[in-house]
Amino acid sequence: MNLTDILKFDKKGLIPVITVDFYNNQVLMLAYANKEAIEMSLKSGYAHYFSRSRGKLWMKGETSGHTQKIKQILFDCDEDTLLYRVEQKGAACHTNHRSCFYREFYRGEVREIEPVIEDFDGIIYRIEENDDILSKLYDLLKKRKEELPEGSYTANLFRGGTDKIAKKIGEEASEVIIALKNDSQSELVYEAADLIFHLLVGLAEKDVPPEAVLGELKRRFGISGEREKETRGKA
Question: For residue 112, what is the enclosing H or E element?
Fold first, then answer.
């Protein structure tokens, strides 16, 4: 049985495809596919779509390198919508945001939501495979702290000061605990990333670079817990 035989395409031979991150279920984009695009996706293992504006088949990341490796394909109860769960490399949006859904309507205003890892709004912070993500993210957070741009979630945290940041870290730690108890790896990865992000905000608030924390971890490596307690505070 072929997948295209099951699906119901519209009058133009197209079907909408919702694409989400396999690891954290973040909605990345919405596009359209025809039978050929679906067949190419199945054959190659990478997401292909059909461009309505250009009238042609295209592979996500063919020129940018931001490919989508398909991990799972789902379809809805009416068989007229597809859902691709993918391993996203780089940014899914042509604006270099992680997701095309990087804006929200909140209390009568449109504001941008900062992604946790990839391409922070308006500033080119391309995360490459060999980059030191903690240092690069910390540098960006320091920039947010200095400039306090309007509409920035991180800037709002810095405006709230230590109390607001500490409260947020506590909330994210609770989410990690829930994820641990739910025994879901994908949920744990997502919540742990949130916690680390907000912990870095706290470090930036107090001008403590992540290298200092990593240095402390290196110091403790190979030292028993009891021995570490004995040496703590001694110089």
Answer: strand 109-112
